[in-house]
Amino acid sequence: MEKRALFIISASILAGIIAAASILGKAVMKFRTEDRYISVKGLSEREVKADLAVWTITTRVAGNDLAEGSMAVEEAKNKMIAFLGKNNIRPEEIDYPAPGTRQLKCSEKPPLM
After folding, report:
1. How far apart are CA 16 and CA 21, in angstroms?
2. Total structural domains within the chain
3. pTM of the predicted model as reported, rounded to 2 decimal places
């Protein structure tokens, strides 16, 4: 009798886990597909596939000289353009924002005596 009760409890827990996984999987799929379309309401309604994608790519370069850093940023930019070009993205479709700089202060240690 005890084995049968243990089997029923185990089967119930397993069924609950399977049901929860199924519900969670459907929710994740719904979440992922909902952000790919927008709804526009007016005189008529229809689904329209988006033809614009925004892909933000960040490049960071560290250095002690601004000129060297600028050259490194330019090299990284050229590599990204080449990569995007290989994947059928034309250069006129790419927007290049102005690069930014950030100066980090180093704590200088006093000389040893």
Report:
1. 9
2. 2
3. 0.45
